[in-house]
Amino acid sequence: MINTVIINGSPKVKNSGSSRFIEKIEEFIGKSTVYQATQLIQMENNSEAILDILKAEVFLFVFPLYIDSLPAPLIKVLTMLEQAATDTNGKSPRVYAICNCGFFEAEHTQVALDILKNFSTSLGMRWGYGIGIGGGGLVSSQSKNISKDGSASNVYTVLLELGNEIENSYTKKQNIFVSPKIPRFLYKLGGNLGWCQMAIKYGTIKSIKAKPHILEK
To answer: Among 35, 101, 186, 196, which is 20 to 30 Å from 42 by CA?
Structure first.
């Protein structure tokens, strides 16, 4: 079994979309060592954990898109890995990434994936490829039920391919971008309904169209 370390880059410690994608990928590769970026950077002494991570044969970073980039906790973890990378004893792990975003168009994740690619190559690690997932909120909500059929069947396919890649081979590929197999307008409609439901729940429905950033003349 390949020694795989998965870094969950989501700032959410529980119930994040990234954790759901990790659960799905572990169905294909088996249980792996998973580190939560937020918890890792809050440890009083994380040097031992960082060195253990660097012993892995495969790194998989799973994270949400934050302003076309990476969440702050994940950036801090990358900095710690970079500082400790001299202790890898010449090992060259393979690196993969899964980035999901709320935008329908998965191509919004391109820059974030390029950042991880540059990080990997600068440390002499072997960059495999990244998966950018659009409509992340919808897809992650279905992640436990993602299968060969349904609106997220294409996401299932690329995750299965990544699982096989991690376990069996190393092939340097182009990044893969996938979005749910539904019309964009339906995704937008569903998102708007979700915002309304949250506003009702928290008693702010009357303020949902407020524009506090616009100064009155």
So the answer is: 101
